[in-house]
Structure formats: C-alpha cells, structure tokens
Amino acid sequence: MSNIKNVAVIGAGVIGTGWIIRALAHNKKVIAYDKDIKLKNKLILEIKRTWPYVKKLFNKKKLNLKNFKYVISIKEALKDADFIQECVTENYAIKTKLMNVIGKYAKKNAIISSSSSGLLPTRIYSKCKNPRRTMIGHPFNPVYMCPGVEIVPGKKTKKNFLKKASKFYESISMNPIMVKKELPGYLADRLQEALWREALHIVNEGYANTEDLDRAIEDGPGLRWSLMGVFLTYHLAGGSAGMKHMLEQFGPALKLPWTKLKAPKLSKKLSSRVIKGTRKQAKGKSVEKISNIRDEYLVSLLKMRKKFETKLK
Ligand SMILES: NC(=O)c1ccc[n+]([C@@H]2O[C@H](COP(=O)([O-])OP(=O)(O)OC[C@H]3O[C@@H](n4cnc5c(N)ncnc54)[C@H](O)[C@@H]3O)[C@@H](O)[C@H]2O)c1
C-alpha cells in the first residue's frame, strides 16, 4: 500500500500527459507544470480522448477532473507533492538545471523520479539537494496503458525511497522493474535500440522496407513477446531440453548477428527511406487515429494477458 496521494508532473508533453492520465485514473491528486504555460486545454482534450480506453482497462466509472490542476509556477506545483515525476526534454543540461530547482522547492521527503529513457541519474541529480530520494522511473509509451516502469537508482539513492517509489507505482497499477545499478539506456531501451539498429541496417542495405520489417515483428516474435520475453521464448525454442539445446544448436550461427554492433550512419538516404516508409504504412491516418486503434487493442490485449500470466506464475 502506498500513502502517496499528491503527485506533481513536471513537463507535460507525450510522457507527462501519460503519467497525468494514469495517476488520475487511480484517484491521485495531480498537479502539472510545463514551461509552455498554454498546454492546459490540449491536456484536457487528451485526457478525454483516452478516457474511454483507460476506464475500460482499470474498470473505472468516472473521470474526476477536480483532481487535476495545471499551474504556471513550478514552486506551486511542488508545494504539496509527495511524489514528483519529471518528464521534460531528454537532455543532460536541461534536466540537471531543473533538478536543482526541484530540489530547492520539493517537500523534505518527497520522492523525485525522472522519466528519462537513458540518462544516468547520478549526473541528472548532481546539483539536486538531497539526492538520497532521487531516481529514474522510466515508463513506456503510452504510459496510461503500459504497466512497465524501470526504477534506476543513482549512486546516492537510499533503498527506502526506492521501496516507497515501487509501492507508489504499484498503487497506479504498474509492475516496477528494479535495476540494480545505473547504466546508460537502462534495460528495455537497450533491447529496443539494438533491434532498431539492425532494422536500420537492413533498410539501409535495401534488403527490405519498413513495412516488411514491422511485419516480421508483428507476425512472429512480437506476438510472443507480450507474454514472454526473449529468454523464456528461446527456452521453448530448444525443445524439451530448453535453453541448453537452443544454445548448443543455434549458438555458433548466432555469432554474426550478435557481432554486427555498430550503428548505421543516419544518412539522408536512410532517413528518407524510413520516413517515407512509415508514412506509407500510416495510410493517411493521423497519429491520433492510429493511437486510438492502438489503445483499443492494448486494452483487450492486457485484459487477456492477465488470464495467461497467472498460469505462468
Ligand atoms: N516519448 C517516449 O516514447 C518516451 C518514453 C519513455 C520515456 N520518455 C522520456 O520522457 C521525457 C519526456 O519525453 P516526451 O517524449 O514527453 O517529450 P516531449 O517533447 O513530448 O515533452 C517534453 C515537455 O517538456 C517541457 N519542458 C522542457 N523543458 C522544460 C523545463 N525546464 N521545465 C518545464 N517543462 C519543460 C516541454 O515544454 C515539453 O512540453 C524524456 O526524458 C524522455 O526520454 C519518453
């Protein structure tokens, strides 16, 4: 159980909005701040767009917008917050400067968590007062649907704050993954980027287009990955001897894909192939329209996954 009720979301772009929606759906009081002081109406529209899906996923009846406040002063946003979720632009200089300000105005025992997708917490919080209560809480887009959050400690983070943060994330229906110590890119993004790097090589070298590569994931590994990750999946690929046979049989052949490690150059030609390819895949549908389709799909998938997850426990 978490007794955290008041949440401040600093930075209200794609990810900040996702946190606001998830926290509101779990009856938290949410106060948001962004340097762009005109975001309030856009936020309300996005909360309303997503609510039909969020409501279904978390079995909620009513959206209580009274629990939401948008302020134009960071000091006011932090005044009563027990939990601060930072979601500003991914950049060391911006985040380090901001964490200095957050440290100044945050309540004494408030937890400060950054949504960063790969920056090192010790560096982001190097100018923050009391770094013992600071960490990364890296979510996945859309935050209001995906239950994953990677908690990454900095060198000075204290365990009791990590535990409190974990309880808080659980209280908003998330499944925290505790990373033992900081590393650039954390866990899931390291995996995602490795996959993307290989896909970019393939597009660059002209073996397939973006749609073919997306289909290769959607119709194969992607179907399994939402229930089992890469290790358990490969355990099954080895027959009754499991991973042992998998490594003995495929290990030598995997040397090539395992060693093509350098990133391809993001040349004009490659960027253009990727942009044109994905535009064609969107078939004229807006990002909002595709997001609605994705959200409806995720609600059904997550509800169904629950039934199967318990069988694997
Ligand atoms: N987009 C993703 O898929 C994703 C997934 C997980 C984590 N993240 C992380 O979340 C964070 C935010 O990413 P995003 O995609 O929401 O970016 P975004 O560009 O959509 O939003 C960033 C917001 O931060 C605001 N901002 C910038 N500097 C500020 C400051 N000093 N004070 C207050 N507000 C400020 C901007 O006005 C903007 O509204 C990043 O650290 C990113 O790595 C992103």
Task: Give an overview in words.
The protein is built from 14 helices and 8 strands. The protein is an alpha/beta fold and about 325 residues long. It folds into 2 domains: about 170 residues, 3-Layer(aba) Sandwich (Rossmann fold), CATH 3.40.50; about 90 residues, N-(1-d-carboxylethyl)-l-norvaline Dehydrogenase, domain 2, CATH 1.10.1040.10. It has an 8-stranded mixed β-sheet. Helix 2 runs parallel beside helix 14. The protein binds nicotinamide-adenine-dinucleotide. Nicotinamide-adenine-dinucleotide binds next to helix 1, helix 4 and strand 6.
What coarse outline follows from CA principal-axis ratios? globular
Q: Which CATH class of the largest domain is shown? A: Alpha Beta
Q: What is the CATH architecture descriptor of the largest domain?
A: 3-Layer(aba) Sandwich
Give the radius of gyration.
21 Å
**Cα end-to-end separation:** 22 Å
Order of helices and strands: EHEHEHEHEHEEHEHHHHHHHH
Strands of the biggest beta sheet: in what spatial order? 3-2-1-4-5-6-7-8
The proportion of residues in beta strands is 5-15%
Bound ions, cofactors and other small molecules, one mention each: nicotinamide-adenine-dinucleotide
CATH topology heading of the largest domain:
Rossmann fold
Structural class: alpha/beta
User: What is the fourth-level CATH superfamily of the largest domain?
Assistant: NAD(P)-binding Rossmann-like Domain
The proportion of residues forming helix, as a percent range, comes to 40-55%
Number of domains: 2
Q: What's the mean pLDDT score?
A: 93
The number of strands is 8
